Amino acid sequence: MTQAANRLDQEFFAADTLQVAKGLLGVTLIYGDCAGIIVETEAYKDDPASHFVTRPNKGAMLAENYGHIYIYKIYGMHHCLNFTTEKQGVGAVLIRALEPTAGVERMRQRRGVARVVDLANGPAKLFVALGLDPALHGRRATEVFTLLPPAGPVEIGFSSRIGISRATHLPWRFYVRGSRFLSRREP
DNA sequence: TGGCCGATATGCT
DNA sequence: GCATATCGGCCAA
To answer: What's the CA–C1' distance between A56 and B13, in Å?
Structure first.
């Protein structure tokens, strides 16, 4: 099977947000000359912590489409990458951490840190490491990125979402168990 | 139009 | 572990 035929397509994102968030773990994300394996994601639907609720204007996109790129700026200086989900409902998945697999030197230049483990272990870090552009907001994920499914089974861990003050009881953060590239150590 | 707050990262103790 | 930089989006007034 060719790489192109194996790629995730638009309809991958049509499913329930939690399914998509888990399904993205182990996926290789390729952008330009850099690539990494997605090892940490978070799901946002129409819960109290979601931008659909807290930023109804901008966050309306979570309901309007699926498989599109949603980029937001936080704390004045950091950008984060999401993919919208659910053909019918409301949702997006935040990409929180990558295990770099290609273009490591390029990522190092952009990030200015030495250790590979520090290049993309956080949502704003991976945004910089990949050299993403806020203008990608609204584009189709599958047009901008190449997304290759995991080679084998992925062991999934979960926890509450990070950095939020509302709906902290929801276990909607997902990660690859045992990965050294997470934004936080697993429990 | 002003003020509050945040899906963060970093550096220092 | 904790302080803090830094500013867009949102809403109250």
So the answer is: 40
Q: In angstroms, rounded to a whole number, what is the distance separating the alpha carbons of residues A57 and A55?
A: 5
Question: What b-and-e string marks burial along A26-60, b requiring 16 or more CB atoms within 10 Å of the CB?
Answer: bbbbbbeebbbbbbbbbbbbebebbbbbeeeeebe
Instruction: Report the nearest residue to nucleotide C7, CA vs C1'.
Output: A76
Give the CA distances from residue A69 to residues A7, A10, A41, A62, A134, in Å, rounded to whole numbers and listed in that order.
17, 12, 14, 10, 10
Handedness of CA A31, A33, A34, A35 (dihedral sign): positive
Question: Read out DSSP for A120-144?
Answer: SSSHHHHHHHHT--GGGTTSBHHHH
Nucleotides of B under 7 A from a protein CB: 5-10
The set of long-range contacts for A108-111, using a CB threshold of 8 Å and a minimum separation of 24, is none
**Interval A11-60: pLDDT, tens:** 999 999 999 999 999 999 999 999 999 999 999 999 999 999 999 999 99
